[in-house]
Write a structure and sequence with these properties.
16% strand; seven-stranded parallel sheet; 35% helix
């Protein structure tokens, strides 16, 4: 456990040594509208390569929250078949953090030092104590490091759905990890129904409403969305850059 946390903190130190511009620690004069922070959760992975190419083309480095989720390939997102993808993202300068291993949901605190952890379909449930919580949060990082030993990992984590409980937050802090959600206007909506939340509407809302300091969230593709958000992602990013926003990366302290 201590070794795992040590590796996370070491990765955070490496990130801190990057240039200030890459971290968004300073706002260059050209960033007239301020700095915003793109984060990407694992998701279905169907549009992953396309999204990665868009980010590369726009010169945007994001913070990637990884979980061992099922993907459109029939495998899981941190299986060996995805190693090349994650290595490429690390080489491009993206940084990483935990999104839990199983991507189940925290659904209450049954007793001090315990938290209910329930699968999406509600068919499986367990109770995590302190040791089990640390294992759940460290596991995706251990899987990532098996493929990308030099990945830069922040001492942050994100609960699936952004859903936390008091015990969850306390127990994660004891594992050495701070929770990082997203801000009021940072939910890009890529997991919403595309019939009722069209790409055009989501694009216009993002460009109109996002403000300086916002933490944005999206996924490497969402299974249930018929019209993939990737179809409009470049328009969103270009629109925000045209307004004068720069994209930074989170640091070890995260943002609130």
């Amino acid at each position: 456990m201590i070794k795992a946390i040590g590796r996370i903190l070491a990765g955070a130190l490496a990130v801190a040594m990057l240039t200030p511009g890459s971290l968004g620690a300073r706002t260059p004069a050209a960033c007239s509208a301020g700095t915003i922070y793109l984060t990407i959760d694992t998701g279905w992975g169907r549009e992953a390569e396309r999204i990665a190419e868009i980010l590369k083309r726009r010169g945007i480095r994001a913070t990637l929250f990884v979980a061992h989720e099922p993907t459109h390939r029939g495998d899981r997102s941190l299986d060996p078949g995805w190693a090349e993808f994650w290595r490429a993202r690390a080489a491009e300068g993206h940084v990483f953090a935990s999104h839990t291993d199983r991507h189940w949901y925290f659904r209450g605190d049954p007793a001090p030092g315990l938290v209910r952890f329930v699968s999406y379909d509600k068919k499986n449930e367990t109770r995590l104590d302190q040791a089990a919580m640390c294992r759940e949060l460290n596991a995706p990082i251990e899987r990532l490091r098996a493929a990308v030993p030099d990945a830069m990992v922040l001492p942050l984590w994100r609960a699936p759905g952004g859903i936390t409980t008091p015990n969850t937050l306390r127990m994660a802090e004891a594992c050495g990890l701070k929770h990082q959600g997203w801000t009021a206007n940072g939910f890009l909506g890529d997991e919403l129904n595309s019939d009722t939340h069209t790409n055009a509407a989501l694009r216009d809302r993002a460009i109109r409403s996002i403000r300086d300091g916002e933490v944005l969230v999206m996924h490497w593709g969402v299974r249930s969305r018929k019209d993939p958000y990737a179809n409009v992602l470049e328009d969103v990013l270009a629109g925000l850059q045209a307004k004068g926003f720069c994209f930074g990366q989170l640091n070890a302290e995260g943002r609130r």
